[in-house]
Amino acid sequence: MFEAAELGRKISRADFDALAASLRNELLDLQFALRTADFPVIIVFAGVDGAGKNEGVNLLNEWMDPRWIVTNAYGPPSEEERERPPFWRYWRDLPPKGKFGLFLSSWYHLPLMERAYETRTLAEMDERLERIIHFEKTLADEGALIIKFWMHLSQKAQKRRLEKLEADPLTRWQVGPQDWDHWRIYDKFTAAGEHIIQRTSRSHAPWTIVEGQDSRYRSAMVLTTVRDAVARHLETRAVARKVEAELKRPPAAALPPPLANQPSILSSLDMTTAVVGEAYTQALQEQRARLARLQQKAREKGVSTVLVFEGWDAAGKGGAIRRLAAALNARDRQIIPIAAPTEEERAQHYLWRFWRHLSRAGRTTVFDRSWYGRVLVERVEGFCVEEAWTRAFTEINDFEEQLAEHGIVLAKFWLHITPDEQLRRFQARQTVEYKKWKLTDEDWRNREKWPLYEQAVNDMVEKTSTRLAPWTLVEANDKNHARVKILTTTCDALQAGLKRRKK
Amino acid sequence: MFEAAELGRKISRADFDALAASLRNELLDLQFALRTADFPVIIVFAGVDGAGKNEGVNLLNEWMDPRWIVTNAYGPPSEEERERPPFWRYWRDLPPKGKFGLFLSSWYHLPLMERAYETRTLAEMDERLERIIHFEKTLADEGALIIKFWMHLSQKAQKRRLEKLEADPLTRWQVGPQDWDHWRIYDKFTAAGEHIIQRTSRSHAPWTIVEGQDSRYRSAMVLTTVRDAVARHLETRAVARKVEAELKRPPAAALPPPLANQPSILSSLDMTTAVVGEAYTQALQEQRARLARLQQKAREKGVSTVLVFEGWDAAGKGGAIRRLAAALNARDRQIIPIAAPTEEERAQHYLWRFWRHLSRAGRTTVFDRSWYGRVLVERVEGFCVEEAWTRAFTEINDFEEQLAEHGIVLAKFWLHITPDEQLRRFQARQTVEYKKWKLTDEDWRNREKWPLYEQAVNDMVEKTSTRLAPWTLVEANDKNHARVKILTTTCDALQAGLKRRKK
After folding, report:
1. Distance between the two ends of chain B, CA-based, in angstroms?
2. A434, A374 in Cβ contact below 8 A?
């Protein structure tokens, strides 16, 4: 694989200058066009030490307008980062639409090191690589352009390069003992590199191997590859938007009659369940005390909890969350109300705004509405194309799997009320002065789409209620029952999570 | 996940008849439209025994024209099948464009059983599932529509169903002791099923879970899902073709000047290498005897060999293959000349025609030109869109990885001659009467595209020369040297393969 990158390719100064004359303007023009485009550009630099990874990043920053470029380089995970799932730090740093994001020592660094130093088996490496493939696919599916450069040097050339850097007082700092360590296990490094490239070179995120010996050749390769890829992607996305418009279907078509009148997962609930009087007060107190105790332990052990609340309008999410939050130390929990995304959030992948809110170890994060908006409101209202919300089921499962693997306790609640009960509550809100603000026209409109939402909820539970992250359907006609069930389920999940951590 | 498929959904006879009236015609119309479409429909049935997998297959055969439907069900692999990589039998049975292919006990069967009976770890299952994801992606990328039904029953409902089948003398044969075995480990089955669905439900091949208790509901779900998916895919593909036309670029654009004039992997070869006189005769005899001995052992051990020959026109592929073949028992080897695909082959995925030629264990298969046509002639001549040939590198690596994993010895040869030498040979062919047929106008045309082909060869070696399946570049200006090098390399590879098998 790397034979083709050890041929001694080089470019003369005159040739390079001739190329550079037009190239700089082309790149600036493209960067300008990108600013109003609907996708970010993600550029990964990896490869052999001394082959020009840093130079590549600097080059792009020099040749283009650095205000529209975000550069990210990673060391060992910080304490903050270790407390979240491994991909948290990469999600946090993703460039928004219209910008370039350059990544050094990125998500490829760890698998490469682990294989070069043989601290992991090939099968374990492959698991990591599959996660990477899905990560990049998730971004590409939403339009991101991903360009990956593998900068290569032969072992001999690497030695010369390191010696040269060491000889110059100005660049000596760039070479550490680690570089020479890597040089000594060059073969293992390149074997691991070959495997990585082969596995993760997918059409949505291909690798370009760059011969790194001659700095002008290297620069020309990086710059022209970026230019061609961005130009092409601008064109492809423009066509894709036309296609989307052409394929646009009425949002969330209902099923044909005999299939539409079927019971849903919600119709199997016993909506008469209720807890009254003393039993309620006692259960509430008990479970809140239990939750406080468990949260204390969770804080000590660093076990985080993520609670997701979805449900019909007026189903009582707010009240349930308040009662739950009361049992938790405010320092140890955050409540994230999810409304329409902000401008900053709209410029990112739709999962980005949820990744960013993952808390440090031992805390509880309560999402009042969540990433499930994609397969609920966005599906029913047609805010995204069908292809996007059907794809979301997989993306959400991947996301939640990463939470679970990190030891995060995840509980998801759908608060269910009957249409009659909703009407009663809407009417009550209209009459009680201090509750009026809670009822909007949108609530009435949503109510008309009840069957479509019911179908969406049914699909959501079917596709995302997994052993790792099950849904709890809460019969919420009786608010007392709902609150006790939510508290009890949360406690049970946390208890089980603490037990798993002990093992 | 399966809670949503245990709700007791059913459809009355009257409702079903009302739906059926239009449905049958719609399906027949779609099937007719499909016949001239550019994609096949692959339908997988999996799930709980007794939930209607067989009935689903029969249903589609009854409701549509069975002449355009291929039904495939799999038992344990036959001796013939065990001698090839596991996916060979599925590739063989893929429906051509315009047809439906129904699959029972398909590629999902083994991972499901292994997990239910816990003969494999979850990590091993995940590896199998990744292969499946890539298999389905490869087909979908070429346009295939993939529909997957998971037929579900609760444990109680399954019991009732099995008892009912047993009670009827006409259906008693359908229930074996294995069905009851599966029923007893129902929980493990559904846990494995959930994991499979979650992992392999991708946007290019989503699962539909069908509640299997009521036969009319089940039928309506299967039939309407197929109808909607086919109708949608016909529409999507029509748009995709328009997009392809719009994005069509000049085939295989050459690199910009300073980057195009670079040495390629071919320019690093020493083209003066030659073997003459006695040395040639002796080396040839030695290596042929060695190959004969090794092939004998390979036959005994069941180690297969696949040899791939690519090279410039007139580089001497034919002569080299003849000399190599002479050392092998004709029973034990086959030579597959690859020309333009036949009509039958054009109706399939481009890799299909190579899968079909994989030989039984212990044999040698020589491909005179190969699957690399995709990234050579098809790329340079623009026979496929750029997106297709860039994707092919990954597809080819996946394919070859499956060969290697199965213990097949793989050697790939690029026969290189210089342009001058080619000209000399072309001219010689023109003058020698019995060689004239070998030279066509196309050869002259290809010659004009030398730089484009050289770039394509360089990329091919860079992206597909892997440790498992390396390319051997053969300096073929001297035919003797080429023949000896090919023989020796083949022997070395076979010897190493036999050694691996012993371990």
Report:
1. 43
2. no
What is the least distance, in Å, from the CA of B102 to any CA of chain A? 23
Q: Of B26, B133, B462, B473, which to mutate for an interface test with A (greatest number of A Cβ within 10 Å)?
A: B462
**Do B277-502 and B2-245 have the same topology in CATH?**
yes
**Which residues from chain B sit within 8 angstroms of residue A391, using beta carbons?**
203
Superfamily of domain B277-502: P-loop containing nucleotide triphosphate hydrolases (3.40.50.300)
> Could you tell me the two tokens for A113?
């090191």
- A469-488 pLDDT, tens digit per residue, is 999 999 999 999 999 999 99
Indicate the domain borders of chain B.
2-245, 277-502
Strand pairing category for A100-104 and A69-73: parallel
A interface mutation test: which of B203, B219, B241, B243 has the most A CBs within 10 A? Answer: B203
- pTM of this structure: 0.89
What CATH number belongs to B2-245?
3.40.50.300
Looking at per-residue pLDDT, the higher value among B245 and B283 belongs to B283
Nearest residue in chain A measured CA to CA from B9:
A262
Least Cα separation, residue B246 to chain A (angstroms):
8
Q: Is the pLDDT of residue A468 over 70?
A: yes
Mean pLDDT of A407-432: 93
Give residue B301's pLDDT band: very low, low, confident or very high (50, 70, 90). Answer: very high
Chain-chain contact of B239 with A246 (C-beta, under 8 angstroms): yes
- Segment A329-343, tens digit of pLDDT: 888 889 999 988 888
- C-alpha span between B235 and A246 (Å, rounded): 10
- Name B85's Cβ contacts closer than 8 Å, sequence gap at least 6: B358, B402, B403, B405, B406, B408
Task: Inspect the interface and report whether the beta carbons of A203 and B390 lie closer than 8 Å.
Answer: yes
Name the least confident of A257-261, A387-391, A488-492, A494-498.
A257-261
